[in-house]
Amino acid sequence: MTASIDSETLKQYLADDPPSIVNLAIKPHFEALSDKEKFYAHHLSVACFTGSRIVLRQVSPESEPIYDFIVALHEHIAGDYAKAAKDAGISQDDVDAYLNYAAQFLGNMGNYKSFGDSKFVPRIEPSKLKALAQLSSATQRLYEQFENAIYAGNDIAKLHLGYPSAGHVSTYYPESPDITKEDISGVSDFLEGKRLLPENTRIRQTKEGFEVLIASATKHPWAAERDLEESEWTLPDGKKVKLVFGDHNKEMNFIASHIGEAKLYAANDTQVKMTEEYAKSFLTGSLEAYKESQRQWIKDKGPAVESDIGFVETYRDPHGIRGEWEGFVAMVNKERTEAFSKLVEAAPKLIPLLPWKAEFEKDTFLSPDFTSLEVLTFAGSGIPAGINIPNYDDIRQNIGFKNVSLGNVLSAKAPNEKVPFIKDKDVDVYQKYRDPAFEVQVGLHELLGHGCGKLLQETAPGEYNFDIKNPPISPISGKPITTYYKPGQTWGSVFGPLAASYEECRAECVAMALGCDFSILQLFGFGDGKEDINGEPGDVLYSAYLQMARAGIAALEFWDPKSRKWGQAHSQARFTILRTFLNAGVEFCELEWKDDDLSDLTIRLERDRILDLGRSAVEEYLQKLHIYKSTADYDAGKKMYEELSNVEPFYENKVRPAVLQNKQPRKVFVQANTVIENDKVVLKEYEPSAAGMIQSYVEREWL
Ligand SMILES: [Zn+2]
């Protein structure tokens, strides 16, 4: 027995009290679909959600019975939790603590946080939960399967997902407590050598060696249907490796059949081919078929109903190669897409407004792929704000990928959500315009920000994509540039680990600079293109600057004082932009507070100085970011960026604690269902509450 966990440590593992429960609003976008599109969306949604049970199995052994318990209890008491409390002889507070846990559990599809991979445990006392369980024999039976696993226990390592050999939990290696990291590497590397892809697999240790469980509806696919004809090998050390098909077979079968139904409502041949390959993959376990579905998916450009489904992201496998089930169905936001395409059309006029000459810019602007979607269904352990898939490098390089932002995820807000760091006088304008401001920001960031700029290169020995005899003049030094990319060098290879955050920062600054242009605000429907800092377009611009400053403060949550490192590329970028605002001087921006602990910290940002002081500070920073990138000047870029990212004692010891204190629980989303009524597909929405969340799952009765 290990020593029990002290109560202070335990606190960080308690469920959110209460969690922030919000609706994933979709109605107008769903209603705008044709009947046929609605059927396509419906069958794909069913397929996505069916995999939620796979997600549960991928989190922890107890997640599946806990899920079944939450649903069974709700059905037994017909959603009347007040009555349940009375019948079980517990208080309303007890039952609320249970409901808070249930909502967070469903929002993470398991009892470990999808963001952070640590366990969360109910605040309801064990004896009270037991009393609830005793309300029916079904709940009692389920309760017995998890009663020893739902709470924190005595072993802190078990409160985190990770390699079993390090004492952590991972059901990617089910019933294999003794499997070592070396075992996992050995089998994984062996199969990689055989060119078997790992995303839809799990590994189980047996007496003879290892079973590689492959998700498929069929337990015995024909050799010709499989990615490998052989299915059993003996490793040099004598251990056996055996492929075992049919993992999650019930779910995979149901998923494949609904994919087949969706195919009947496909909008084009590409969707037909895509759904065929999906079905083939889910029936037989072939990931080569899955890769073909992804090639088709990329070709399906700008569909009314967008969807991707399968074993996608590998964050949660401690070994980092096995995928979690994920599926989404979404609608293209037509208005936003139109504003974005106007922005792309206007790019040749807008890019020259940026603080560098044409020599540092591409000859012709190529807009990156970017769409804004509204999510109907997202099955998985959590909902991201954007997606960039597929992850297969060969497909990304040869065919491409899709880059989407999920509009209704980004804009979802809990009722009465606090807005820390914004002054009372600004709250009304900020709350009214932060979403439109963010939309402008995202469009400029993605399309023009990541889209603009040229890397000055020696493309082959002695060949240059700029005039080497008469090199461009750096606007920073006023002298001809002396650095550039050598043959074989790329942006990523020169800037290394700095590249991701630095590029996000460059894109954010492009958006902050161009957002000051009133003709751009007009493209998004604000004003007539004339300068109007005190009118509505000015409200949008002011909100954009406040939002960036606030994000720069909130970013400190993602800076780790132990390693003194930034854990998140965008957060680091936003912190440096906040510092840039502050460096522009107190005439423009300042942090203000009265209380010693900074609990009343607010941002003062002068609206009528955005166009002169704010914009020029951003442009000066952006110019350096851009020119250093363009000219492969890693040393200068690193020095500047690390200086601005440095978290000084004031930010570490004063601001960061205030940020953590104001931190809101992570949102969990209540999603709608689609049902077929009188030959039509109808949307069913639920209340943004724990009971509403549970009800939405109860009605996914196939799950
Ligand atoms: Zn970006």
Summing up helix and strand content along with how strands pair, one would put the structural category as alpha+beta
Ligands in the model, by name, code or SMILES, are: zinc ion
The main sheet comes to: 5 strands, mixed
Overall helicity: 40-55%
On the 0-100 scale, what is the average pLDDT? 95
Q: Ranges with pLDDT <50 over ≥5 residues? A: none
Q: What radius of gyration results from the CA coordinates?
A: 27 Å
User: Which descriptor suits the 3D outline?
Assistant: globular
* Number of β-strand runs: 19
Amount of beta strand: 5-15%
Task: Determine the N-to-C terminus distance.
Answer: 38 Å
- Tally the helices: 26
Biggest sheet strand order reads 6-7-8-10-9
Family: Belongs to the peptidase M49 family.
Catalytic activity: Release of an N-terminal dipeptide from a peptide comprising four or more residues, with broad specificity. Also acts on dipeptidyl 2-naphthylamides
InterPro entries: Dipeptidyl-peptase3 (IPR005317), Peptidase_M49 (IPR039461)
Protein name: Dipeptidyl peptidase 3
